[in-house]
């Protein structure tokens, strides 16, 4: 069976990655392959959500204290 161009590219990529791993310990390989976990929500939206929730709570507490 002949290889398709897509399969050939995938095989070359796999061979290149395996060749780069040769002679290295598992710890070195794991350190290099770990990626930082990226949050699905940007920091801007997290801050905005925090402001809406906690800001509303703070304003509610202030209004209850001063407007008894």
Automatic annotation (TrEMBL):
Keywords: Endoplasmic reticulum, Membrane, Transmembrane, Transmembrane helix
Subcellular location: Membrane; Endoplasmic reticulum membrane
InterPro entries to which the protein is assigned, alphabetical: ER_stress-assoc
Pfam families xref list: RAMP4
TM segment ranges: 44-67
Membrane topology: Single-pass membrane protein
Cellular compartments per GO CC: endoplasmic reticulum membrane
Reported function: Interacts with target proteins during translocation into the lumen of the endoplasmic reticulum. Protects unfolded target proteins against degradation and facilitate correct glycosylation.
Recorded family membership: Belongs to the RAMP4 family.
Protein name: Stress-associated endoplasmic reticulum protein
Source organism of this protein record: Corynascus novoguineensis
């Amino acid at each position: 069976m002949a290889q398709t161009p897509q399969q050939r590219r995938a095989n070359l990529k796999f061979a290149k990655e395996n060749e780069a791993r040769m002679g290295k310990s598992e710890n070195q390989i794991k350190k290099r392959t770990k990626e930082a976990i990226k949050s699905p929500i940007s920091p801007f939206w997290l801050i905005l959500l925090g402001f809406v929730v906690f800001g509303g709570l703070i304003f509610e507490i202030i209004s209850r204290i001063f407007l008894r």
